[in-house]
Specification:
Layout: H1 2-5, H2 15-18, H3 34-88, H4 91-120
């Protein structure tokens, strides 16, 4: 779980490959530019923060099992939606999948990772 939390922050690894989806060795005119790709990370981090405010009490009320299951659905579903977005070359699907769903899923995982760490330190 702790290793997967950093995945959101490693998005820059995908920047260059995503600017070469159509033109594999170099960017083609129809490829996305870095400015468009950069919004994916920004949306994910914004949703991560917003979902903390919106779902914080729910996460505390339902406990780690339901919350982590929801996080896995959001994060895994976000990857699937993002993969379709890349395959269909639809940037809005990448924003929705990795940005919105992935950001929401990352927040739920992050919440319980913080609680685990707080409980281990006296």
């Amino acid at each position: 779980m702790h290793l997967s939390i950093g995945q959101v922050y490693a998005f820059s690894t995908f920047n260059l490959p995503l600017t070469r989806v159509i033109g594999i060795t170099h960017s083609a005119p129809a490829d996305w530019d870095l400015r468009e790709i950069g919004w994916v990370f920004s949306i994910a981090i914004a949703i991560l923060g917003l979902s903390a405010a919106v779902f914080g009490r729910w996460v505390e009320r339902v406990g780690p099992r339901k919350s982590m299951f929801t996080a896995a659905l959001c994060f895994g579903g976000g990857f699937i939606v993002s993969a379709f977005g890349i395959h269909l070359h639809q940037l809005w699907l990448l924003y929705l999948g990795y940005g919105v769903l992935g950001g929401c899923g990352a927040r739920h995982r992050l919440h319980f990772a913080g609680l685990d760490s707080d409980q281990m330190v006296p």
